[in-house]
Amino acid sequence: MSNNSAEWKTISGQLGSLSTKDLVKLVHELYESGDSNRRFITARFIKGEASLKKYKQQVHRALYPDFDSGKTDISINVARKAISDFEKAACDPQQTLDLMIYFVEVGTRMMQDFGMDYEAFYDSMESMFKRVFDRLKGKDRELLPTFWARLKMLERAARNTGYGYGDNLADMMEELSEVPH
Fold this sequence. Notes:
This protein is mostly helical and 181 residues long. The chain has two domains: 1-33, no CATH class; 48-177. Helix content is 75%, strand content 0%. The chain is built from nine helices and no strands. It is globular and about 60 Å long.
């Protein structure tokens, strides 16, 4: 048994003995203790655009920094972590796909506005689009109509980009168009 498992076993045993009032107090303390906890708890319990908006802001800041403020670091890992964190917290496939598509939209806008001579950036956008593609072709197929128009706009926006990115998105979209929806 790993140390984390042993710790969790002890903690979960103690949580089981807490009253509802004490559990609520503990969750409130976690909520107040930091932004990541606050975002997680909000996403878990408040469905809708309000909680998703905070994660979209994280993705946007990571992929399209405010150059006027002097913050020029692009962090694909931070944006991907925001999606992973949201998916765990919200347990909502539609909103998770929304955030994943947003990731690709922001990255594609960055390519259009500034040009990117960084193949790994294109690869990351394509990889995220592939995750969306796989989910909409598979387990989340019923959500394809919800996102179809956005995906088509994204495909058009990616047409004149580099490293085969636009062509690869077009190929995936052609395959998605054959999925019954």
